[in-house]
Amino acid sequence: MSSPQTIQLLQKAVQEIQANELESAKLHLKAVLGKERSQPDALRFLGIIACLQKEWTQALELIDQAIAVSPENGLAYSNRGNVLSELKRHEEALICYEKAISLQPDYAEAYSNQGNALQALGRFEEALICYEKAISLQPDYAEAYSNQGNAFLALSRYQAALACYEKTVLLDANNAKAFYGAAIIFDLQKKYDYSLGCCNQALKIQPHYLEALALRGTIYFRAKDYEQALTNFDEILLIHPQSIQAWLSKGDIYAETKQFEKADEAFKKALVIDPTKDFLFGLSIQNQIQMCQWTDLTNQVKDLVHRVRDGEKVAIPYNLISLVDDKSLIRCSIEIYAQAMRGNIERVKQEKISPKKKIRLGYFSADFHNHPTAYLVAELFECHDKEKFELFGFVFGRNAPDEMRNRLEKSFDQFLDVEDKSDEEIAQLAREMQIDIAVDLKGFTKEARPKIFMYGAAPIQISYLAFPGTMGLLCFDYVIADPILIPEKHQDGMVEKIIYMPDSYQVNDRSRKISPLIKSRKELGLPDSGFIFCCFNNNYKITPAVLDGWVRILQSVEGSVLWLYEDNPIAVANLKQEAVTRGLDAGRFIFAGRMDSADHLARYKNANLFLDTTPCNAHTTASDALWAGLPVLTLAGESFGARVAASLNNAVGLSDLTVETQEEYEALAIQLATSPSRFKELKDRLERNLLTAPLFDTPLFTKNLEAGYIEAYERHQQNMPLDHIYIDAPKG
């Protein structure tokens, strides 16, 4: 039995611990031990202080001493479990909590802590049982309700989680974690105003709540309020300068706003903190090539390739597509990325949908507005056979209604804006609507939501158009391609089975307007005479090897210039400097800014030959050039992204403009620029083919694509295994 003085000192120490006056509490507890050498509560409280000061080894030693003196003390076992949980030794922690409960069956906190350990191990259903027990023992236990909400959140049972958080704040209005949990749910449900409100409340209670600051910054970023987003991440860095997530988020914002130098600085700060952070290295490289900043690119690519081969999470999807032509390596990198994104998501196994009068097609995209993808697909939707197919458009992303969206809506039986729904909710909605075939038009591009398909939106799921490669997961059953794009010998670069179109995989819209007001060379900043080579591809697709070839071509064609797209001023400056370094007058690179679609197509009339990039070809840009009557010279590689322009050339009758070596590429460019008769024949052939060749025959393309959909549907209905599908539809 402790003396009154010891009890008084212990009570004083407890008050000081609660007030965070830890050093003073330690003095009082040591005074107790000076009187009673092995006083168990004093040892236990010293262990708790060590835990608060993150001195884990000392904490365990002190609590173990307390248990040795008082082996029937359930509180000490629970404290020991807490220390082990902090050390991520959750299985050992569970043993401690079980011991605590066996000694004190009515110990509500031990049940709640046991639930937390089970959550950490991913055993959420078991955790819920523990929280229920804790609440039954202590109905006003706010923390147990909050923990229960976290378990429901992990199980994606959002309404149940919100109910728990609501109960928490009714019992404890200052529980910041409950407000933050609710903010996460509202964010997942795309209810950004509610999420922002909950973040603000959590931060009002706990101003330095880093997770709430990060989420609030992310919400501002999604709303394109970049200034507010940066303010949030700067606040985090004031509190925690080593926050890698804050530096990453700042880098993303700067990259989004084309402030690539600032993005580069942010990514480098993050790399210093953790050079092995998932996908950071690839993200940093991608940002550098946006600026055509190639200082250490050769070594960086070697390192990137080596780490991908070692299975590291290092490359974002476009990294290797932009930099190397190795289909197997690209597939490997995408599989690593896709699997990391998928986590523990499992595709819902659907019951076979009974045949209906029409096959239900669901198209999913963030690009149903004035966007390059929409310019390609608009007529496809209009040409679909509405007697055979029922069309559902699922639109998400940060876009507002415009002329293109109004046009697209008219082609669909149902056009659903699902931006405010979570990925899982969208997948569930599609299943409830009995979509037979779900077509993803985004892949891994900006604002993509591939998790919709990881959860399972339809029995048949197809990747199409936006992303030049495999999606890396079996949840995608098919990809749309053609024999030029993916020859049979290259099928091992894809996870999915392939629906082979007979001509090109790429759809086009024949109604695209070309402005009749064609500006003169002078108005566009071009020389009055001389051959105009052109490449309006994104600057990141220009590699040192591509530029080397271009310079050699220009040096061989007197008076010629190269007309390039100006994505950002840093890339312009770097490309000009690279030209000078290679002995070329920088004035022979001329840069063009952004224009609206009709004027952009019209300005192609002033160019003579489009020089494609490799290993990442022109996609929509190549179609633009061809539609405007500009021939495209391309070097075909082995990977998907390196064969797109070859596919387009084949379908427009210009296969002779597809070459297989760099030497052929340069020689043909020079020959065409210096042989007016051959060049005229080429231009005339393209002009004749525009309205007769398959590339711009949208009704024919639609008919062939529908044949692919129907065969995939029938194979599924007959329980046949997935296999490649070859479409040989009659022409016309």
The description of the largest β-sheet is: 8 strands, parallel
Percent strand equals 5-15%
Unreliable parts: none
Across the major sheet, the strand order is 3-2-1-4-5-6-7-14
Distance between the termini: 99 Å
* Percent in helix: 40-55%
**Radius of gyration (Å):** 31 Å
Mean pLDDT: 95
Number of helices: 32
Mass-distribution shape: elongated
Q: Structural class of the secondary structure composition?
A: alpha/beta
Tell me which oligomeric state these chains represent.
Answer: single chain
Number of strands: 14
How does this model look, in words?
With 732 residues, the chain is α/β, with parallel strands linked by helices. The protein contains 32 helices and 14 strands. The strands form 2 sheets. Strands 3-2-1-4-5-6-7-14 form an 8-stranded parallel sheet, with helices on one face. It is elongated and about 110 Å long.
Defining traits:
alpha/beta; 732 residues; elongated; single chain; 14 strands; 8-stranded parallel β-sheet; 6-stranded parallel β-sheet
Describe, in short, the structure shown:
The chain is an alpha/beta fold. The protein is built from 32 helices and 14 strands.
List the topology elements.
Elements: H1 4-18, H2 22-35, H3 40-52, H4 56-69, H5 74-86, H6 90-103, H7 108-120, H8 124-137, H9 142-154, H10 158-171, H11 176-188, H12 192-205, H13 210-222, H14 226-239, H15 244-256, H16 260-273, H17 280-290, H18 297-309, H19 317-323, H20 327-342, E1 359-365, H21 372-383, E2 389-395, H22 403-409, E3 414-417, H23 423-432, E4 437-440, H24 451-455, E5 460-463, E6 478-481, E7 497-500, E8 532-535, H25 544-556, E9 561-565, H26 569-581, E10 589-592, H27 597-603, E11 609-611, H28 620-627, E12 632-635, H29 644-651, E13 658-659, H30 662-674, H31 676-689, H32 698-717, E14 725-726
Helix pairs in contact: 1-2, 1-3, 2-3, 3-4, 4-5, 5-6, 5-7, 6-7, 7-8, 7-9, 8-9, 9-10, 9-11, 10-11, 11-12, 11-13, 12-13, 13-14, 13-15, 14-15, 15-16, 16-17, 21-32, 25-30
